[in-house]
């Protein structure tokens, strides 16, 4: 087994990285950052997202394991004081894994060029100045004309991220679908959208046909897929559940709803 260690290089993470590297060496587990079987991330959910993008060309072969140096995260099952237990689990690894869906993001520009991206949490499209206007198609059929600040298209595991902050539903990660959330839509007697998030299933797809093409930013997780310096203008964006998935090495079961409770409700009961 070849293991890569991917850290956010804070003081705490550097300490854990040293412990991990030592544990791997002592147990003759090969460290290989180029073509790993397992990627151990040390930091938070943000670090896992960053590692996902770093290894996105190798998703079919790689399994991720997240160690959180703070509170427990949504992609990070292990705490920094559990390094020994984790090394034991690596030694007993039998390829066990769990997969989660990703969203494909295909941007078509007005000059006919295209770009492909993939997101683990979400992709957002926002207009920096004035109102963004776009037609939303569900499986090729016009659903509504959106006017507002922007839209967020999230995966089930991304539903607890940005999606939640804009009033989206938290989705059980065993469900396959993508959620479309509105960011400050204009709703009055003249302009109307559904006004609530929608979730489409695995066999559906979304197309956003832009009616305003300037001052747009498109994100994929924490990265910009389209920034303000881009000269090309966006014609449309296609979103669908990706044929690819992210795999996590599942050495122990963690209950998703307990984690939601812990992260967002905690002692408030
Ligand atoms: P960031 O400031 O590094 O992270 C924002 C927070 O979101 C961090 O506390 C991070 O956890 C947490 N997070 C990331 N993925 C999550 C998930 N699936 N469920 C619950 N919490 C999650 O932001 P960034 O690096 O620019 O963007 C990373 C992600 O953060 C984005 O994909 C987005 O989902 C989320 N985000 C949310 C907001 C918002 O709610 N207004 C704004 C920006 C970004 P850790 O501390 O464990 O890393």
Automatic annotation (TrEMBL):
It comes from the Bacteria. GO terms for biological process: NAD+ metabolic process; NADP+ biosynthetic process. It is found in: Cytoplasm. The keyword Thylakoid does not apply. It catalyses: NAD(+) + ATP = ADP + NADP(+) + H(+). InterPro entries: ATP-NAD_kinase_N (IPR017438), ATP-NAD_kinase_PpnK-typ_C (IPR017437), NAD/diacylglycerol_kinase_sf (IPR016064), NADK (IPR002504). It is an enzyme of class 2 (transferase). PANTHER family: NAD KINASE. This is NAD kinase.
